[in-house]
Amino acid sequence: MTENHSAHTHGTDGAGAAGWMTAPKMLQDVSPVTVPEGASAMTVYVEWEPGDPGSPPHRHSGPAFGYVIEGAVRFELEGEPERIVEAGGTFWEPGGDVIHYQDGNALADAKTRFVVTMMCAPGKPMLELVEEDELAQRAHLRAPRPTS
Questions:
Q1: Separation CA 74–CA 2 (nearest Å)
Q2: Top-level class of domain 31-139
Q3: Which of 82, 91, 101, 137 has the most other CB atoms within 10 Å of its CB?
């Protein structure tokens, strides 16, 4: 018995068969991306309470890609100015040596929720905290802080 794949509509009447072509919406397109050989990937759901500062300064061994579901994330990577990523927005970081300074809730009166997919080099922790002495040594690489 031969199946005709072009007529296969996965339970639809055919009217919505082209929906797969119009349903996706590009959220983020990043290049170049360096993924460590043999990397694993994990997707994590994060929920910060109002005003939560998030993770302390850290880095990842591979790239990370995030999507804000609700609220607003205060996001800052080494060499880039702090920015606010609101619900429906995306963020990414290249991983490796770059310090991720902030990923906390930018809202004082509401929760913030986001998902992030991270690539992790074999034998490395998913998140490595950066010590105070290294932060001081690399202070010249941090973008100027907001004055407000």
A1: 55
A2: mainly beta
A3: 101
Side chain identity, residue 126: M
Taking each continuous run of H as one helix and of E as one strand, the counts in the chain are: 2, 9
| Residue in this structure with the two tokens 């990414």, named with its chain if needed | 92
Label residue 56 exposed, middle or buried (CB < 10 Å: 0-12, 13-18, 19+): middle
The answer to whether residues 66 and 107 touch, using CB atoms and an 8 Å cutoff, is no
**What does each of the 148 residues of the chain score in pLDDT, given as a tens digit?**
444 444 444 555 555 677 887 888 888 888 888 888 999 999 999 999 999 999 999 999 999 999 999 999 999 999 999 999 999 999 999 999 999 999 999 999 999 999 999 999 999 999 999 999 999 999 999 998 777 6
Q: How many CB atoms lie within 10 A of CB 52?
A: 18
**Structure token digits, residue 106:** 């930018």
| Three-state secondary-structure class, residue 120 | strand
Each domain of the chain, given as residue ranges in start order, spans 31-139
39: number of Cβ within 10 Å:
17
Report residue 60 as tokens: 């990842």
